[in-house]
Amino acid sequence: MGSDIEVFPLTIDQTRCEAYGFCTEAAPALLELDDEGYLHALAHPVTAQAIADAEAAVRVCPVAALRLEAVAVAE
Ligand code: SF4
């Protein structure tokens, strides 16, 4: 039986996102706004090393469009 690994999905609620761009300033390596104002995750799931940036992006979003959670996945 394998051990569980943790992954950190960063999900975007496109129905809430209003393209303010605060999250892309907080985590430019993880999130990007395209020319039409749609937010894209550049790294999915987020690595453990990038968790602090991802948490900062979630915190600065004024409309709570981002969610980061730890999920245990069996190897
Ligand atoms: S801060 Fe929130 S509203 Fe602004 S682009 Fe990021 S997810 Fe969208």
Structure description:
This protein is 20% helix and 27% strand. It is built from two helices and six strands. It has helices at 22-26, 51-60; strands at residues 4-7, 10-12, 31-33, 39-41, 66-68, 71-74. The strands form three sheets. It has a two-stranded antiparallel ribbon with strand order 1-6. It has a two-stranded antiparallel sheet with strand order 2-5. A two-stranded antiparallel ribbon has the order 3-4. It is elongated, with a radius of gyration of 13 Å. The protein starts with a strand and ends with a strand. It binds iron/sulfur cluster (SF4). Iron/sulfur cluster (SF4) binds at residues 17-23, 33, 39, 60-61, 63, 65-66. It comes from Microbacterium keratanolyticum. Pfam families: Fer4_15. This is Ferredoxin.
Shape designation: elongated
**What about the largest sheet?**
2 strands, antiparallel
Q: Which kinds of small molecule does this entry bind, naming each only once?
A: iron/sulfur cluster
Low-confidence stretches: none
Mean pLDDT: 93
- What would you call the structural class? alpha+beta
How many helical elements?
2
User: How far is the N terminus from the C terminus?
Assistant: 9 Å
Query: From the structure provided, what is the oligomeric state, counting identical versus distinct chains?
Result: single chain
Main-sheet strand order equals: 1-6
Quick one: how many beta strands? 6
Percent range for β-strand residues:
25-35%
What level of helicity do the residues show? 10-25%
Radius of gyration: 13 Å
SSE run: EEHEEHEE
